[in-house]
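Exercise 7. Given the encoded structure of a 107-residue chain, write a plausible sequence.
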């Protein structure tokens, strides 16, 4: 069972039951959430629901204009990779803290 295998990874890293459950849920939310975001309005432009004139957007929202290219489909894979790296790095740091705490308790 996939769930058991993923939970075993967390358990083997020293995470308790609650943290394992939460980490599994975070990973489970991340994949579908990224897919829904890609299918959503961000990839269609600055304002897909109620388009705003380019001049108005540029004057009122220069930072939105600057980041807009990275909301497009050609950047989805890299954005997903960056987010996944952040999640995994955070989990790795937590695993190191759990291992350090266990080592300290054993002394």
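Solution.
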């Amino acid at each position: 069972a996939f769930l058991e295998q993923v939970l075993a990874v967390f358990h083997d890293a020293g995470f308790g039951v609650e943290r394992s459950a939460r980490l599994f849920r975070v990973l489970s939310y991340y994949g579908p959430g990224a897919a829904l975001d890609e299918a959503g309005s961000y990839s269609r432009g600055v304002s897909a629901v109620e388009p705003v004139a380019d001049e108005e957007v540029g004057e009122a929202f220069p930072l939105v204009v600057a980041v807009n290219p990275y909301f497009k489909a050609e950047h989805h894979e890299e954005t997903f990779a960056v987010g996944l790296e952040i999640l995994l790095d955070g989990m790795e740091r937590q695993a190191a803290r759990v291992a350090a705490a266990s080592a300290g308790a054993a002394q």
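Remark. The radius of gyration is 20 Å. Students should compare their own answers with the one above.
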